[in-house]
């Protein structure tokens, strides 16, 4: 029996790529010298596509694949996948939730520590010899008793909240609906921002959350406040963020994601009040392997006629 044809738009982990190579006829669009010509040549036979959150798959690519049955992405976010085009054709979409929750929540808490206690600046203060030249480092702000507002209390948001409690932080949240939790609920992002000392963005990306963290929300966090974003760069109005940081209307920011990746706006990255991470919150060997295995397992379930493990929608 012939192996199903699978289009690779973006490669996943090596072991899982070997599993795919053994089970399918792979067409490596990600390695093609002329992607348009390559896609036109292999498109009629392609029944499945593998991608990642940063790459996704466009409506035009979906339209070019008449036999496409399933798109499996090694990511939780699906904002780079044209879900409308998939739905119109009855194409299944799977993602990789749950397995990256702990790592992303860990990075959120790390960002809180780095920004509020200025750990990166302290590191450079020692390494550069400034400590010996100028004396003690400036005092920072304690975490205990501060208010952490979490925008989006899904799996990751709840994991962040759980990590905040042992540090003596108060937790509030805003979400599309109130959750059965003990944390204080705020109807709007702005109301949450006004309450917060530290504002953590943990909501999905996509058109529905574009610039949800607006200029008004950023200003409500305030000159002593901190914005942490481990969600998507699109959720924050980045121009408003840069302006607020420059003129002191926002105290500091810790960012794992940006409006432009992998080359963020230099006006943002040059600021001393920003702690930066290269969209790497889920970037551990264990988590990326687990995400890739979910891709493999979802495809196997589809072609075996079984229920998908993690369908989208």
TrEMBL record:
> What is the scientific name of the source organism?
Pseudooceanicola spongiae
Q: Where is the D-isomer specific 2-hydroxyacid dehydrogenase NAD-binding domain?
A: 109-281
> GO molecular function of the protein, one example?
glyoxylate reductase (NADPH) activity
Q: Name one GO cellular component term.
A: cytosol
Keyword annotations:
NAD, NADP, Oxidoreductase
What range(s) does the D-isomer specific 2-hydroxyacid dehydrogenase catalytic domain occupy?
7-312
InterPro entries in UniProt: D-isomer_2-hydroxyacid_DH, D-isomer_2_OHA_DH_cat_dom, D-isomer_DH_NAD-bd, NAD(P)-bd_dom_sf
Q: What is this protein called?
A: 2-hydroxyacid dehydrogenase
Family from the record: Belongs to the D-isomer specific 2-hydroxyacid dehydrogenase family.
Q: Decide whether keyword Signal is in the record.
A: no
CDD domains in the cross-refs: HPPR
């Amino acid at each position: 029996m012939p192996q199903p044809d699978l289009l690779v738009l973006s490669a996943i982990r090596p072991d899982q790529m070997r599993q795919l190579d053994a089970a399918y006829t792979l067409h490596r669009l990600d390695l093609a010298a002329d992607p348009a010509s390559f896609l036109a040549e292999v498109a009629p036979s392609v029944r499945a596509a593998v991608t990642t959150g940063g790459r996704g798959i466009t409506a035009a690519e979906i339209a070019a694949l008449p036999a496409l049955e399933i798109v499996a992405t090694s990511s939780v976010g699906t904002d780079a996948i044209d879900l409308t085009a998939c739905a119109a054709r009855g194409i299944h979409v799977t993602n990789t939730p749950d397995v990256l929750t702990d790592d992303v929540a860990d990075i959120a808490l790390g960002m809180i520590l780095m920004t509020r206690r200025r750990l990166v600046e302290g590191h450079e203060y020692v390494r550069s010899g400034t400590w010996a030249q100028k004396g003690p480092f400036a005092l920072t702000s304690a975490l205990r008793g501060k208010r952490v507002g979490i925008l989006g209390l899904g799996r990751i948001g709840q994991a962040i909240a759980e990590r905040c409690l042992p540090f003596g932080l108060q937790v509030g949240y805003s979400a599309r609906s109130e959750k059965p939790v003990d944390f204080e609920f705020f109807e709007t992002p702005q109301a949450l921002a006004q309450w917060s000392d530290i504002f953590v963005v943990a909501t999905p990306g996509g058109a529905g959350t574009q610039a949800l963290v607006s200029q008004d929300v950023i200003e409500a966090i305030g000159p002593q406040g901190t914005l942490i974003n481990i969600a998507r760069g699109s959720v924050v109005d980045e121009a408003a963020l840069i302006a607020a940081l420059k003129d002191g209307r926002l105290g500091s920011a810790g960012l794992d994601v940006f409006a432009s990746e992998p080359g963020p706006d230099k006006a943002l990255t040059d600021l001393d009040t920003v702690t930066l991470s290269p969209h790497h919150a889920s970037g551990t060997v264990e988590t990326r392997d687990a995400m890739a295995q979910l891709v493999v397992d979802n495809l196997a379930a589809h072609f075996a006629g079984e229920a998908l493990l993690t369908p989208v929608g």
